[in-house]
Amino acid sequence: MKNTIIAFLLSLSSIAALGQTAPKPYGVLPTRRQLHWQETEMYGIVHFSMATFTDKEWGYGDESPRIFNPKHFSALQIVGAAKAGGLKGVIVVAKHHDGFCLWPTKTTDHNIGKSPFKNGHGDVVKEYQLACQKLGMKLGIYCSPWDRNSPIYGKAEYVTDVYRKQLKELYSKYGPLFISWHDGANGGDGYYGGSRDVRKIDRSSYYGWDTTWAITRKMQPGASIFGDVGPDVRWVGNEEGHAGETCWATYTPHAPEKGKKPGNGFVLDYQGTEGTRGGEFWMPAECDVPLRPGWFYHKSQDGQSKSADQLVDLYYKSVGRAACLDLGLSPDKSGQLSSPDANILKQFGQIINKTFADNLAAGATFTASNVRGNNSLKYGTARLTDNDRYSYWATDDSVTKAQLIINLPAPKTFNVIRLRENIKLGQRIDSIGIDAWQNGKWTRIAGASSIGANRLIRLPQAVSCSKVRLRVSSPVCIALSDFGLFKEPADLAAPVITRDKRGTAFRYSLLHILDFRAV
Ligand code: FUL
Hints:
3 domains, 24% strand, binds beta-L-fucopyranose
């Protein structure tokens, strides 16, 4: 009898212990810097430089610094408008392909110090930094590797003595950055100090990204590195602002086509749009898209900015698919965002705020088919509505299919469903299904495969009910951190349904990313 009691107590304590043990992580995991980036959700990339004054998208590199002379430049206005739009940071294009540097660099005379702006004493990057500090926004930097002004572009010395030095200046003078943004930069025609020729480089080897990124890691350990193929954040494969309907944070870049070297400008079945289920790297997607038709301001494009409703649509197709939205902002020649653009941002921010202000599931009673170790305190369903991305409802190790019934205190009407996994434990869930209790039976209203950091399902029409069911299927036990039901403000235009295009461009080498994930 005594033995039976001891065995019983032991089994109780082991069940309790089980309930205390967190689920084992699944697959590759995000780093701290990637979590920080993911939480940012939306940021802007500000193109305001020489090309603003020459009305071009890509300056040739022969522009005189005297052309750069905004009369009313205001980083506060630009960053403030971004903040009103709900963006949480800005990436400053500190140097675009034309090579003009917006900070007083020692690496070239082709910089703001030679312009009339503030009598040659201006530093636009510094002004953004101060504005970001003041407004509680994050700062990132884009310094184009391709430089159509530099006489030595194409030689090894450009990378060692110009480009990397420029990055070092930017990494050391403007405080902590949340992202270092790099693009493909394949070279081509340009001024190149007067030779006006065509300089082709082999992008798989020329920039020596591994050495460059080691500098980023050392000087800006909190910054995620964005590139077409990571290493921290991958390009989604289009500049239209949307991720795939299914979009995994994990990714295995595809091998080059047979007979083609990686990095020479060809793609090979580029899968950035959707990622790879169970991929080799944690490398979530960034969706970059300009607010206006071009990245730089052109008067001829006034009136063609995306509307607030269009931005909302892109929000659901990027942030709502566990990617981040990187919205191109284009101040005009005065040095500020035009008021129509600033207004659109404001309206967009208001719609998103209004939509997510009230989680209709917050007051509901959740009944789970399983709670890990019966430990409701630690792994119970109360974690689903506490607004903490990393607290979670979990199931026992053996339970990989589970369901939740959400009993709403009164009938509610919603058209947005939010789900989040605790991604510190990896991307676990394979798929979910959602049903609404209507006319005495369950009716399926939505389904999705990838969930990850944030999944927003925008229903084609609002649903009214008092009971919702979530069905989850995963290869390992479940670790879901959020369940929300929301109602968009009524005056929004109907969502635009478009087909996802698979990205087909590929701007630089796969080879470089591979060793960088571990750093
Ligand atoms: C591209 C550049 O070529 C465009 O001009 C723009 O800066 C965009 C954000 O990235 O690679």
